[in-house]
Every structure is written in structure tokens, then in C-alpha cells.
Amino acid sequence: MDTAARLREQRVPAVLVTLVSVRGHAPREAGAKMIVTDEKDFGTIGGGNLEMTAVTRAREMLEEAAGSHAEPEMLTLRLNDKAPAKHGRQCCGGEVTVLLEPLPVAASVAIFGIGNIGLELTRILARLDLDLDVSDSRPEQLAEIDRLEPPVANVRRHFAVIGEEVLTTLPAGAHVYIMTHDHAEDLHLCDAALRRGDLGTIGLIGSSAKWQRFRKALIAEGHTPEAVDTITCPIGLPELPGKHPATIAVSVAADLLGRLA
User: Quick check: bond before 150 cis, omega within 30?
Assistant: First the structure.
């Protein structure tokens, strides 16, 4: 459990592997556990084909679930010389059931532009257990974050004249919301986000008319229409209308939480 807590604090995705039942002879008893990341193993459930099969499947789950939620899985393995085995045979004679439970890390969210709406969205998201990067070219806007309640989130503020410098540092699967005070900067950030190709949500604040202009410009920059249409504009829940900054922020936050569920 100490390892699991440390990996979560370090934002390293992992899978907890547990021997939940044992029939007959097996290398370890029911309840034995190990943790698997994409690079390391911690602990053991008995070695051999049993362990390697579980580790391989755990790493497949981590790869498949990059940036999204993964469901637990069960594996049942027979430990005899007639059972299929990719990693060498084990002839203990028993049968084991293994539970693989993903240990997700906190989501990563970035807000570009801490104006009225960006500040309200920061106010809401700062109360959640996630990594929250906020970026603006105006230091006085970033200073407004000091007025917020002590955050639950890991909030990192960035004074950046060029927001792309921050965008390139975000982890794969990060959810990005673009709402700066400059439409030219918004367009530049949309272009940079699409060129990454590995982000989660890309949300752009604005009207349908703004989006049509941006869409045409992004396609002219060489992006395919299919890629451009992964950007969400307008942002938020369509069924929650309203133009007040707090209303828009609540709508955007609710839509994000639905995606993270």
C-alpha cells in the first residue's frame, strides 16, 4: 500500500495484481499482491508463467487505458504441464484466479487564459484531486488565484507570453481548455494542441461563428477536418445555457467530470 500511495503521489499509473483464490498447489497463497507499472514490478505473486502472464496483461491494460478509465479484470490460470503457457510451464498442479485492478492517477487539466471564465473554472477545478496547470500572459490575472480557497488540486501557475511553451510540457491525455483574451493566441494554441496528437479534451471557448473561422484556418494550416473536429467549441454542456462566467464554468466542469467518470 505504501508503494501504491507513492506511485499515486508521483502520478505514475499502475495495476495492483492480487491472487484472489488458489485451488490446489501454487507458488503463493491467496492474498499475495504485486504492483506493475509500465517499467517496474513491485512484489511478487509467485514468478514463472503465472506472474509473467499477469504482468504482461497489466502492461497491456496500462497502454490501452492511457488517458482514460480502465476496468478491473480477472484471470484464471491452470498450473500444470498441459495448460497453455507463453512464459514457461509451471507444474504446481493447482489453479489460481488473479485480479488486476488499475490504480489511476489524477487527471491533468490545463486552462489557458485566466480571465473571468478561466478564473471561475480554476475556482471549481481547484477543489478536485487533479493536476491543474493555469497559464496567462498577464501576471495580474494569475495573481487572482491567490484569492481562491486553499486548493485540493495540485495547481501550477505559468506566466507565459507564448502558451505553447506550457502546452508542450503537459502529459499525454491532458484535458486542455483554451480561453485567452486574444483570438490570435487561441488559434495558435488550437494549432499546437492538434499537432501534439495525444491530448484528451481540447476545448475552445467561443461562439459557433468563431468556431467556423477557426475551423477554416486550421484546415488551411494542414490539419485534416477529422482532426480539427476533435476540438469542442462551444464548450460545456449544451443543456446548460447561459453566458454568466460562473454558469459557463460550471457547465465546462460538469462536462469534464462526465468525461473523467
Answer: no
